[in-house]
Amino acid sequence: MFNIRHIAVNLLGSALPILIILITVPLYLHAIGAEKYGALSLVWIVFGYFGILDFGISRSVTTAISRAEGRQAKADIIWSAAALNTGWGALIAIVGGGAFFLYARYSSSPMVVEVATALPWMMLGIPVLMITSTLNGALDGEERFKMANSLQLVGSILYQLVPLFTAYYVSDHLPDLIIAVILCRLVLLTLYCIVVGRLFDLAALFSVSKSTMISLLKFGSSIAAVNILDPIFTRIDQVIIARFAGASDVAAYSIAVNSIGRLGILPMAMSRSIFPKLSTGTADDHREALFSSKSKIIWIWFGICGAAIVASDLVYYLWLRDPIYVEVSAVAKIYAVGLWANCLGILPYTALQAWGRSTTILKVHLLEMPFYLVALVLLTYHYGTLGAAIAYGLRSYADYIILWKMCGYPVRRQGMFTILLIALSVLAFAMHQFV
């Protein structure tokens, strides 16, 4: 089921940007301070959220390309998807930009007003992100993972280093940093256009098909709804922290989540490599192989997350060299417990999408949302950043159980997972209390 070479390429493509982040985060803190870095993190979150609202077109492109035969058919898919995302991205930019303009106009926050001066650039960046995602989906569908990861690595380098260079040598004002980010996205899109254009001979095979657009939208509609909800689950915690605490707490939480969350690169690499293959078969064709994979990785990720919990204090102290490391480390320990469950839930999540059952994921998330939001608000209000991490862990556990059940995995076989979850929770609590 798994192609080791594809997994290795996707893993390397995810791991190398981590090294860049390890270097740049302390430099960002030194250059612009924790408060401004927290505000910049929120801008990235909102900007990235709008960037994925593509009606599931990128995943639809991956599925369609993996099933298509002939260069003309594949070119038709890419051109049609690009046209869809260009129009949809422009609409989102106008609506979202208008809403933010009104919010900034009546806001008393100096940082909000400062960010609003870069609004035209942010609006430009939304369709740029969506078109780039479409082209990346085409490369994944063709299983050109090496090429796709190389481009993403270039993007990560630009995305982290150019704004940092701007902060040190040009200006540390938020609008200037945002503009630097958008310019990097434009460069990356240009590279994608050159590579994908040559691979699929898009210039000679131009074709935009209404029927192809409808087909892409039909497959991607439920994925789109999940894409809208997913960032709420994964990023709303930082918005809630900003409401009850402050920008410095957002910075600490963001650093912890963004760094410890990188441990999920292996399941994500596995998910990305198997999605095209899962798309070409039925659930019955792949179910047993999926269950077998789960049994193998549960122990691997228990060891990885357990080691992260034990080493977090020393690692963050050596890495950040800033008093903020104490809060970052505390959040990371608790967050790692939920991350373990979340990583194990990536495989059924991917399988359900590939089998055209994204509606199932949507129903699960809609069911979880009110409970999660209530828990998040209450726990964050009483326990701050640690409470937000606990809420994430509770949701990840519920998500894991339900998604595997939807793939046909019996709940009664989850005993070992529950035991390991308790063990990991006890370890995190002990390290938080006594280290």
TrEMBL record:
<feature type="transmembrane region" description="Helical">
    <location>
        <begin position="177"/>
        <end position="200"/>
    </location>
</feature>
<dbReference type="InterPro" id="IPR002797">
    <property type="entry name" value="Polysacc_synth"/>
</dbReference>
<keyword id="KW-0472">Membrane</keyword>
<dbReference type="GO" id="GO:0005886">
    <property type="term" value="C:plasma membrane"/>
</dbReference>
<keyword id="KW-1003">Cell membrane</keyword>
<feature type="transmembrane region" description="Helical">
    <location>
        <begin position="371"/>
        <end position="394"/>
    </location>
</feature>
<feature type="transmembrane region" description="Helical">
    <location>
        <begin position="415"/>
        <end position="434"/>
    </location>
</feature>
<feature type="transmembrane region" description="Helical">
    <location>
        <begin position="298"/>
        <end position="319"/>
    </location>
</feature>
<feature type="transmembrane region" description="Helical">
    <location>
        <begin position="331"/>
        <end position="351"/>
    </location>
</feature>
<keyword id="KW-0812">Transmembrane</keyword>
<dbReference type="InterPro" id="IPR050833">
    <property type="entry name" value="Poly_Biosynth_Transport"/>
</dbReference>
<dbReference type="Pfam" id="PF01943">
    <property type="entry name" value="Polysacc_synt"/>
</dbReference>
<feature type="transmembrane region" description="Helical">
    <location>
        <begin position="118"/>
        <end position="139"/>
    </location>
</feature>
<keyword id="KW-1133">Transmembrane helix</keyword>
<protein>
    <submittedName>
        <fullName>O-antigen/teichoic acid export membrane protein</fullName>
    </submittedName>
</protein>
<feature type="transmembrane region" description="Helical">
    <location>
        <begin position="7"/>
        <end position="31"/>
    </location>
</feature>
<feature type="transmembrane region" description="Helical">
    <location>
        <begin position="77"/>
        <end position="106"/>
    </location>
</feature>
<feature type="transmembrane region" description="Helical">
    <location>
        <begin position="37"/>
        <end position="57"/>
    </location>
</feature>
<feature type="transmembrane region" description="Helical">
    <location>
        <begin position="151"/>
        <end position="171"/>
    </location>
</feature>
